[in-house]
Design goal:
Blueprint lengths: L5 E9 L3 H12 L13 E9 L5 H5 L11 E6 L8 H15 L11 H10 L3 H11 L5 H4 L8
Parallel strand pairs: 1-2
Antiparallel strand pairs: 2-3
């Protein structure tokens, strides 16, 4: 499923060769180009389900596909604009609450990421841009930016 703000992907891996296949999927998730500076997509959720071998098919058929099972993996890629060092605590608290209570408490005064982006677009950032242009000078960022494996300039 792809939306303007997020991508949801679900994969299945057989128990035979599970570790190698999982390592390959994780490597693909870390590849550059997952997010673009021009795009609005900020979150990518990838659920990887472990599929039992043929002899365990009966047990597999009784599994509720709406819940995670032992051996399933969640990979959550989030751009810094959506979750940073401060907001990660709140995100993890909400995730734990939703997992434990099966819902989040309804708080009318919550500010959403969409609220924040609207607020940011209304602000004048010309002073910040001028500050960084002045302090950055003629710095050639391409020499060290190429070493970052996720976001690209």
């Amino acid at each position: 499923m792809i939306d303007d703000g997020y991508t949801f992907v679900e994969s299945s891996i057989a128990t035979t060769g599970y570790s190698e296949a999982l390592a390959n999927l994780i490597e693909c998730e870390m590849a550059s180009g997952l997010f673009t500076n021009e795009g609005s997509r900020r979150v990518r959720l990838h659920v990887i389900r472990r599929v039992l071998s043929n002899r365990n098919q009966e047990a597999q058929s009784n599994v509720n596909r709406d819940t995670l099972q032992v051996g399933d993996v969640i990979i959550l890629n989030v751009r810094h604009e959506a979750i940073d060092g401060i907001s990660i605590k709140y995100f993890l608290d909400d995730l734990a609450e939703g997992y434990t209570n099966k819902h989040l408490s309804d708080q009318d005064d919550n500010i959403t990421y969409l609220d924040y982006t609207v607020y940011e677009r209304l602000n004048d950032h010309s002073a910040s841009v001028a500050f960084w242009k002045d302090h950055r000078g003629n710095l050639d960022c391409s020499k060290f930016m190429a070493r970052f494996p996720y976001d690209q300039p």
